[in-house]
Amino acid sequence: MTRLLLVAALAGAAVGCASTAERDPRDPWEPLNRGIYSFNDMLDTAVARPVASAYQKVAPSEVRLRVRNFFGNIGDVFIGVNNFLQGKFEDGVSDWARFAFNTTIGLLGIHDIATDMGYEKHNEDFGQTFGRWGAAAGPYLVLPIVGSSDVRDGIGWGFDFYTDPLNETKPFQARWGLVGLRLIQTRADLLDASRILEEAALDRYVFQRDAYLQRRRNLIYDGRPPREKEPDDEAGDKPQKPATEEKEMHDDPDQKPR
């Protein structure tokens, strides 16, 4: 099985390398990324999507909501940590208050009573924290199984994985059972988005890459990202003549520039 997966990944990479289209400067590893993207898409089509679709059909919406709440509650622990690391102390306190109320009154988080109490759900991770600290995103990167990322977020994902509270679950059968259920729930939540992607995008790889990079930038700046510098802005960086000087030159054609 491992050999088959490896062969499929290498075959996808070979197809990607054959592309001669002009590359986006944010994606210098596009041929390799396209290969891994093809492998991930094949794995999703063969395994993840059918399992998520079956789960969505079998599990009532109320059950899926409770499962989503349970894992969201676990995530609030390190969402709070990342908010503290980013200097957003009020949000960090709110995240830990969410965890306290939902774990106790909300019965281990299956009921999200904290939102009704006015404690907003946040979305923070180590990749965003590194971005707030000034770390550059680096090239776009598609990770096997994980999917869209960049160098900074890939490193951040490693920290997220290492600090995942589910890692403390024992025995290991229960731990991997919970991890599997979380993956299925996450994929089920993305079924509608994947259908839109298939219907709307001529090049799904490019659409997903651009959407990922834009979303991550918005998350790092909490929805208020600074304007990105365009290539045409280079001319704008040159010092401009004062308006008064331009007016004088216009009024006196014989006057030479100083």
Beta percentage is under 5%
Question: How would a crystallographer describe the biggest sheet?
Answer: 2 strands, antiparallel
Class per helix and strand makeup = mainly alpha
Element-level helix/strand string:
HHHHHHEEHHHHHH
CA-to-CA gap between the ends? 75 Å
Let me know the average pLDDT: 85
Find the count of extended strands (DSSP E, 2+ residues): 2
Q: Percent range for helical residues?
A: 55-70%
CA gyration radius, whole angstroms: 24 Å
**Major β-sheet strand ordering:** 1-2
Topology:
Blueprint lengths: L1 H16 L12 H29 L2 H25 L3 H16 L8 H4 L9 H7 L7 E4 L3 E4 H12 L9 H18 L1 H10 L3 H17 L12 H4 L6 H9 L7
Helix pairs in contact: 1-2, 2-8, 3-4, 3-8, 6-7
